[in-house]
Amino acid sequence: MDNGGGPRLGREALRISRRRFLASTGALVAVAACSTAPGGQQQGGGTSPGGVVKLVAWTIGPDAPSFYRKDNLVSAVATLNQELEKENPKTTIELDATFESGGQWGDYLQKFQLAAEAKQGPDIVLAGHENFAPWVGPGYVIALDDLLKKHEAKFKDVIPTLWDAMKLRGKTYAVPQDTEARPMYYRKDLLAKMGWSKDRIDGLPEAVKKGDFAMSDLLATAKEAVDKGVVEAGKGWYPRPTKGHDHYMFYYQNGGEMQDKASGKLVVVPAALEKHYGVYATAVQTKVTSPTHIGSDFKIWHETVTAGKVLFYNAGTWTWKEWSTTYKVPENDLWDKVGFTLIPAAQKGAKPTTLSHPLAYMVTSNGKTPELALRLIAHATTPELNSRHSVESAHLAILKTQQDDPTYKKDKFLLATGYMSDFTTFIPNHPKYGAYDEVLFRFLSGVATGQLTPKAATDQAVAELKNQLRDELITK
Length: 476
What we know:
Elements lengths: L17 H7 L4 H5 L18 E9 L7 H20 L4 E9 L4 H13 L6 E5 L3 H5 L8 H6 L1 H4 L11 E2 L2 E2 L2 E4 L5 E4 H6 L4 H5 L1 H7 L4 H13 L9 E2 L10 H4 L13 E3 L1 H16 L12 H9 L5 E3 L3 H8 L5 H7 E4 L17 E5 L6 H11 L2 H11 L12 H4 L2 H6 L15 H16 L5 H16 L3 E3 L1
Parallel strand pairs: 1-2, 1-3, 8-10, 9-13
Antiparallel strand pairs: 3-12, 4-5, 6-12, 7-10, 7-11
Helix pairs in contact: 3-17, 3-18, 13-21, 13-22, 21-22
């Protein structure tokens, strides 16, 4: 989940000083560097004379139901130790794992970056797939290709397309931990008030999948709901209210590209960007979306949609579980009143879309036993463990055999949204993606608040991207 605006942080975005970090984490680096943990265990993944290897792992939700990101690693310790006992009975793994719930992505990523700079980072860090791009240059995380090849059998079950999101310039830097889709949700009860039949309501996902119901149809339906008083003005469509990857579904929907596969450079397609901005402009001009929506509070967003006051709203699959656990909406009410579909195509007959943002385990350069760290990740990447995470947190399968796992098969929502992976897109893995994202969202905000036309916003955004990214940008 990325309610905090998505996991991203560059060097220029640090909000606390290195001195403050070192003063507040583990007392002083000098003390940590010359001390060992109790029982003869060394910090940082090193092996003590007693043969105990202590690994440290940092994970985050920030959504509370995603706690298995940590707990699966904890469960994997026993399996790895059983394996090691056959190889070298004197070697034992111990794991110090943390899980951050309810916090902000920026703070978490900042903490890791400062720890990595101070050589006090964990052995394993979980983050968004795009986060390793700015960490590769300074060497905070390591390429895994040689280790993955050595332990290929342990990872052969991973859905192949997910590996594309784990690579940068042909090298693999992460192992998928989970993935998701970002559907367009809709209120069945509000469509019924507008006179839609049950068959038409229930058939909406298939109509979107076939390209029979396009984004223009969605906006027209939302306008009709506002005009008829079925919903208040500004509550026809609720897009994401903060910066985040969800917005780019409407760029991809209109033929946008974000990264060139061959060169790894970032890409902007001005014609698609103008249409992308145009979606938001139309929504605001027709009172389907409020001009103050972008920049509003995400908690209020959730409270409003769960109260049944919004007709269409797009969010991640994980929010389905969050609505029932955090916002206390009975799951039966969700199934009775809420539907979900792909993001409709830009035009009738075209292909709908969604976006996935896989989270991933990375092995850091700070650890002294990277192979053991990867082997621990491998034992945490099983149908049984990943399925319990998927079901608990409403994330889609990352393993082919999860489709046959008894736990996964019992989850009605995951089975109903699994097909969306066939229509998914990803954000780029590029060290300057943060700057690219900041520019495009800033001008989107200008359009959404009525300060800029889509054309003016596109021209200014492209000019700024060219100025900032220079040779790292391809304009198509």
